[in-house]
Amino acid sequence: MTEALDTSARLLTILADIGARDVLDIGCGHGALSRTLWRAGYTVTGIDPAPEAVAAARMAVPEGRFVQGGAEALPFATASFDACIFLNSLHHVPVPLMQAALREALRVLRPGGELMIVEPVAEGAFFEVMRPVEDETEIRHAAIRAIDALLAARVAIGPAPVTYERPTPMADLEAFIASLARVDPARRALAEAQRETLGRLFAAHVSVGPKGPELIQPLRLWRLRAAKP
């Protein structure tokens, strides 16, 4: 694995390298990445299927443009953006629609634009502690297979992905359960029902980093361009 670096820093470096201006945040959630992009000077558009997420993103980045919709049918004209980003969101697209979502992202790219995909790998400390609450093994593998299929079909081209580690500060089990619930409130009841198991796993996998206890999650980053016809 490469040296651990902040995901936002990696994405901003790539955007600067390709001279991007207009960026599409696919699966924007509550707008965390969109806010980072806007603060760095980019024109930001976000899309998410959840209306509450879109509302939160609009509050977080009033200067951005946010729409509700699915990644498999982007409501944007061909060649609208310099870059498209899936940040931990491709594996949330229904498996049968992942290929369509990737092809749509390539469609809305301008010539020379890049599609960046960051996906969590189905391994690592954070993943192992989370598994009893929500085991994402299959959907994470499905997302990687969808990317591999796109490359095999020569619809997209790009270098080998980069795998790196994301340390997440996690003071204790309570903080871990709270982090799961922030993503999906329904996870709290599932976590509470398995508190003893989660406690054992947390103790077994937590490590101590520069800022204290942390859980490591490997991430993988792809940089793709549309293949020439």
Description:
This protein is α/β, with parallel strands linked by helices and 229 residues long. The protein has a domain at 7-121 and 135-167 and 219-226: Vaccinia Virus protein VP39 (Rossmann fold, 3-Layer(aba) Sandwich), CATH 3.40.50. Helices cover 40% and strands 27% of the residues. It is built from nine helices and nine strands. Strands 1, 2, 3, 4, 5, 6, 7, 8 and 9 form a nine-stranded mixed β-sheet that branches. Strand 8 and strand 9 (212-226) form a beta hairpin. Helix 4 packs across helix 6 and helix 7 packs antiparallel against helix 8 (186-193). The longest helix has 16 residues, at 137-152. The radius of gyration is 18 Å and the shape is globular. The model has no long low-confidence stretch (mean pLDDT 95).
Radius of gyration: 18 Å
Structural class: alpha/beta
Low-confidence stretches: none
Identify the CATH homologous superfamily of the domain at 7-121 and 135-167 and 219-226: Vaccinia Virus protein VP39
Helix coverage percent: 40-55%
Descriptive labels:
40% helix; globular; single chain; alpha/beta; 229 residues; nine-stranded mixed β-sheet; Rossmann fold
Question: How do the strands and helices of this protein lay out in sequence?
Answer:
Elements: H1 7-18, E1 22-26, H2 32-39, E2 43-48, H3 51-60, E3 65-68, E4 81-87, H4 98-107, E5 109-120, H5 125-130, H6 137-152, E6 156-157, E7 162-169, H7 173-183, H8 186-193, H9 195-205, E8 207-209, E9 212-226
Parallel strand pairs: 1-2, 1-4, 2-3, 4-5
Antiparallel strand pairs: 5-9, 6-9, 7-9, 8-9
